[in-house]
Design goal:
binds zinc ion; globular; 1 helix; about 60 residues; 4-stranded antiparallel sheet
């Protein structure tokens, strides 16, 4: 059973993301599941990335 990457809610959608810790040019590409709430938050954060426990996430592989 899948869960949201950030909480225990049931996920809405699997999305391609890029994530990094300190250097936005040094990204790791992955696909993760987000609930509706967190999908919106990550989308809203845009290129700055949504920070969660010291890791930044943004939608897309670029
Ligand atoms: Zn969530």
């Amino acid at each position: 059973m899948q869960r949201c990457q950030f909480c225990t809610a049931q996920p809405l959608q699997e999305v391609a993301i890029a994530r990094w810790t300190t250097d936005p040019d040094d990204v790791e590409r992955d696909t993760v599941w987000f609930c509706g709430k967190h999908l919106q938050r990550v989308k809203k954060a845009g290129n700055r990335g949504f920070e969660h426990k010291g890791v930044h996430y943004k939608i897309g592989f670029w």
